[in-house]
Amino acid sequence: MKILTTLAKTTALAAALTMSASFVAINAWAAKTDVTLGMVLEPPHLDPTAGAAAAIDEVVYANIFEGLTRIGSKGEVLPALAESWTVSDDGKVYTFKLHTGVKFHDGSDFDANDVKFSLDRARGEKSTNAQKALFKGIASVDVVDPATVKITLSAPAGNFTFNLGWGDAVIVAPESADSNKTNPVGTGPFKFSKWAKGSSIEMVKSDNYWGKPVALSKATLRFIPDPAAAVSAMLAGDVDGFANFPAPESIPQLKADPRFKVVIGSTEGETILSINNKKAPWTDIKVRQAVAHAIDRQAIIDGAMFGLGTPIGTHFAPHHPAYKADLINTYPYDLDKAKALLAEAGFPNGFKAVIKLPPPSYARRGGEIVAAQLRKIGIELEIVPVEWAQWLDQVFKKKDFDLTIVSHTEPQDINIYARKDYYFQYSSDTFNKIMTDLNLATDQAARYKLMGDAQTLITKEAVNGYMFELAKAGVWNAKLKGMWENAPVQATDLTGVSWAE
Amino acid sequence: MLHFLLKKLIFTAITLWVASMVIFALLEIVPGDPAQLMLGINASADAVAALREQMGLDLPLPIRYGAWVGGLLQGDFGVSYTYSVPVSELIGERLWVSLPLALLALALSTVIAIPVGLYSASRRGTRTDTGIMAFTQLGIAIPNFWFALLMVYLFAIWLQWVPAGGFPGWDQGLFKGLKSLILPAIALALPQAAILSRVTRSALLDVMGEDYIRTARAKGLTARAVLWQHALRNALIPVLTILGLQFAFLLAGTIIIENVFYLPGLGRLIFQAISQRDLIVVESVVILLVATVIFINLLVDLTYALVDPRLRQGTGRNAS
What is the ipTM, given to two decimal places? Predict the structure, then answer.
């Protein structure tokens, strides 16, 4: 009997709880201020100054951490922790005026010393910053007063304020820098609240934010690695959206559903057929030109990406004002020309080669189509699928490859062609000269012209096969406002996101 | 019994030691530098070198092996390269998902399989038996991830009874947690139940051919009484063996189902750790799983003793 009464009590209690829970749910619906977004990859940790994984920035950039500058949704440089800045006439000294009254999430004050600490840490000898090169040009960082910091460069760098807007250049506090990997403490409008590893990360609105407060009270990022599961999660209403939807094949289905909004934007991901420029027969420009003529970009975009992507003729993002669109016609799709070039290079019957493909579908699916296209001009490709770790080891480090497909997602990264010993092994004094001039130029028109020259040169020399710019397929609840359409940096900037009434 | 236990324990220790060497050696052979992987293709060489030093990857092999095993012996699983938290903490969090999921699936599979096996054996050769066996064949043949997707479509997208995946955490309440685990548990249990019911049936049929069954029947017991009182108990040993193997499999081998339902379980932890070359996590989780499998086998061996009185009395099989 006693058991029975206990049981009855428990049931009554449970019923009461359920009812009050649904009340809360109804009230919350009236003014929904939380959002749950899906993400494909879980970040390994949350310190953007110590890792290259895009997933780190996709969680913390602009939300939790801020830099002196930040990059806006169109790729423009905006002030962030720096209210304004001036540049000396010789282009070497940048003086940043900082916002005052800014606090880190742990309550400590932000001032010029934190800026000095962060930048010195990123460029120091013990630095494990993935983009250490961004800070190479800094000669010294000096604190003028708590709200002013002076950065002296060893040479003028036209894109310095853009570089400071990268996630790798965010400002951290000396007290919390070492624990940011698991407990990120920044100055942003959201503060980190919880990380259920393998499952989700939660952040909540920061009450003492210095700038314009965000509309959301809470944001949850859930990790859904499987494309089919991502579709189910959208359809079942488990998540409110994906900034980067991983299943392009399901886009038409979601587009047709009035509950959702589908936005196709662009990214900074130049997806290229990389060629080992120092390995025979690829050393011969005729062979590379033949490949360029044999690639049918639209067929690759249609076949591998379900039509999502913009064809590119060079290593530059099409949405950038300095992009040279006409370069796409340098080597039009022309199999006869390709065969003729191969014959001139001494391969009238073609040859055999190896293409190593990392896991993303642009590479695996794209690689099969490329192999079929090159077979038409007699180049027989052996397809070798590799994991990222193997790719880094064999292709990137040991340069043991003929061809590979990879998307270069760093913003404005054409300067990799000037890098010594970079994996596709291009080296050109002319190109290096253009990059040096570009670094010294601060005038916008001059910079754009140099960027154009660089694009023209690598296209003419057919360094790599230029295929397409990765698209960003955003899918979210039709009532969600303020999500980014494009991805000029890898970020899920939630600062402007809110629910429509 | 004591002798039997002691021998088992010594074997366990040797197996674990050999396993630790194999695991460590294999992961050293696999190409891929964790530091390079973390910093990506734009990183400068000196930043990668600094990170390698920080992670202790520049130390010679025997020292790293020694440090790992030494740590293990003191119950220290090391610190994850990528997550920068103790591996034991990671495993602990994941076990809260994997263990209940495995137990739920195992319970479901047992509850379905034993009666089905029994029923089928008692109707041997009839159309019902053939029908059930054809059905179990189907259960083994259907890929469980495909079945899982069908269930998601029906129960999560169409009926919206359960979430399509994910795990909210037990702090959100027992009911919410179970709701997230029920579909994956069914998907995992189905093929296991199919196998288990076939094993139960054939074990029963084997036993039914024994002399003592004929004797029992001859002394006038009904077929049903013989099945329940004599045959089932004797058929339990192969069934227990399969159950033990299934539990180990359910704990460690659920990567695909965990992916379909994006559950933060042990399988996904290993999968993520391998692709990120988080060597210390892979090593420690794998050695833990090896230990679990060995321990479960030991446990199964001990339960034989419960089922089989000959083993309990210290004579018979355990003497060998």
Answer: 0.78
